[in-house]
From TrEMBL:
It comes from Gossypium darwinii (Darwin's cotton). The keyword GTP-binding applies. Residues 42-271 form the Tr-type G domain. Keywords: GTP-binding, Methylation, Nucleotide-binding. The keyword Nucleotide-binding applies. This is Tr-type G domain-containing protein. It comes from the Eukaryota. Transmembrane segments: none annotated. Belongs to the TRAFAC class translation factor GTPase superfamily. Classic translation factor GTPase family. EF-Tu/EF-1A subfamily. GO terms for molecular function: GTP binding; GTPase activity.
Amino acid sequence: MGMKDEVHGRSQPGQAEPKVKNKEVVALEDAEAQEEMETNKKRHLNVVFIGHVDAGKSTTGGQILFLSGQVDDRTIQKYEKEAKDKSRESWYMAYVMDTNEEERVKGKTVEVGRAHFETETTRFTILDAPGHKSYVPNMISGASQADIGVLVISARKGEFETGYERGGQTREHVQLAKTLGVAKLLVVVNKMDDPTVNWSKERYDEIESKMTPFLKSSGYNVKKDVQFLPISGLLGSNMKTRVDKSICSWWNGPCLFEALDCIEVPLRDPKGPFRMPILDKFKDMGTVVMGKVESGSVCEGDSLLVMPNKAQVKVVAVYCDENKVRCAGPGENLRVRLSGIEEEDILSGFVLSSVVKPIPAVTEFTAQLQILELLENAIFTAGYKAVLHVHSVVEECEIVELLQQIDPKTRKPMKKKVLFVKNGAVVVCRVQVNNSICVEKFSDFPQLGRFTLRTEGKTIAVGKVTDLPVA
Ligand code: GTP
Ligand code: MG
């Protein structure tokens, strides 16, 4: 869901590599497995690119791949020609990430693009989310796999303003990212080269000063977890190397690569019970499932359960990025080949889970919700229906009971009985779904216990699972 083929190093336009390599290659790679385990010792970070439509997320992502040597000059020249033929001259860098025809014609990302690059110290997985409001569910799926976010903001006259207005995706993406567990944000003020900006310090300061209170109110600790920097994604300025003083005299801070290199990796426990929400699956010499490990480790030969249907499976092979590995730990994006289950018996949203401590499967749970913005005239009360997004699950749900309202200031439960709430309220309620889903308490596994509720294409609430029925 919401994921297209990965962008691999030096691949030709429109020619995605097979998702899993064929048998011969695998046999060869076995001998190299040891060496690959060594490379995997480099720390790994999942970075989601978020922000309003046309802010320059795909362009910046494409430029990163070009500057880090993942895409060569010839490919870029081809894209330049293709973009010109489509009357989208300035979109050629975005074509590195936007690989679908629809995306290239319209100049808009639809599905989350995925790519890899490395610096001296870190292996990065880039997740390039769409900015258009129609594709927020895809953005949610991208952000839920990320450790950190790069929030791309256009400094071009009028564009920052549109993105930041009510209903602009700059706001919605920040709020979603925070709820979905994106702990840190690099805010890149992009298009600094644009003639309406021309590396103006005033414009940069204006954007930083307007964004800061909003980021604070969305729950980010601006001093510790947020960093601003100016770039031109299109020209590649202040990205791999610091911007030249002749272009921007006032910037004394880091460039994008330096900032990415300095971000601390969140602590993860490789010994926790294994949890990998399944994003996608396909047939290839057995059943292959894709997803990000949220807890624990997995090794070739392990016995696991596919939840919620409790199917016993065996791990035949593990692939990390493009490489076959023996074991992989939390935070990694994997493809896992399984025996003991048919591809048809798996749905995205299922979770590959440890046998000893399987993930709970429930049709009801208690949650604390924060109501963001209800549709006009709507009231939030028992009987309210919405679409629940939790890790890779998308499922219709109903609020069956409002339990208590929380005072947002004191964070304490309010005494009077609550029958309905309005925008901005924090409320504890019981949520029901038709089909069994796998969730955890937020306090145990934050990534598997935080969710969003959406109605008619709008995010109306964010929440966390506070209690599960006793099994
Ligand atoms: P969606 O995927 O639709 O959300 O857009 P996006 O954020 O990925 O934007 P994209 O990279 O497709 O770029 C949109 C337009 O902005 C293109 O015309 C780019 O050439 C232009 N653009 C992106 N970065 C820069 C920049 O640094 N400077 C200038 N001048 N234009 C830029
Ligand atoms: Mg894009």
